[in-house]
Amino acid sequence: MYQDAPAGRGRFITGLKAGPPAAISVASARYAVVVPRVVHHRVHGLPDDRVDRVQRQFDNLVASRSWQGERPWIATSRSRGLFESEYLRHVREAEGQGVAAAGFLRAGGDETDLLVLLLFLRDVSCEYGVRVVWRDEDHPLSKLRYLELRRGRLPSGNTLEEMLSRRAVIKKVHGHPIMFYPPAHRLNHHLPARPDQWGYSLCGMRAYAPTLLEAEREALKILRAMSRLS
Hints:
It is a single chain. Helix content is 31%, strand content 24%. It is α+β, with helices and mostly antiparallel strands and 230 residues long. The protein folds into three domains: 2-34, no CATH class; 37-162, 2-Layer Sandwich (Alpha-Beta Plaits); 165-229. The protein is globular and about 55 Å long.
């Protein structure tokens, strides 16, 4: 049967017998299958003459970094693959013809994968003045399981960074944790926040970068340098 895993870990298969996770034998645990979180995303109301440009921007994002989970993808009216075309058709039948782009991402345990994609979609919403929907039903925080962005902002009028400001994102690389802090997050309560920059910390060092992508790139450079020195 399916048992709920710890928050953020999806679900795992424990076998046919019911019982709490603590009762699972070592032998059966070897065959446990972790089901990754699946995040669905939609772009509504994008003008047809902007679809190609958004597709190019999306492709550039995917090529700009390594993804621990699956590589993101979107289905649009320009998609030529059978799966993408059929997926978009089914989404439009269920959610309306206003869906201009749709897709889903199976996360591989790296929260930064999801956050990078979410920030990209926020930028699309802002740049083109469209509505974006993000569904992450297995997120441990209920307020982040469903997000809707219009012209880059939440329905409340707040920015996405304001919602994320209290929560650090942890990325593990070869066992080494890297902490990323959204703009307005205060690493030190005695120092003012930096609302326009992403903070990151690793190996006892802290620094800032204009975007999450740049912060991730700089942090990985530092980690590689530290590995060579050690």
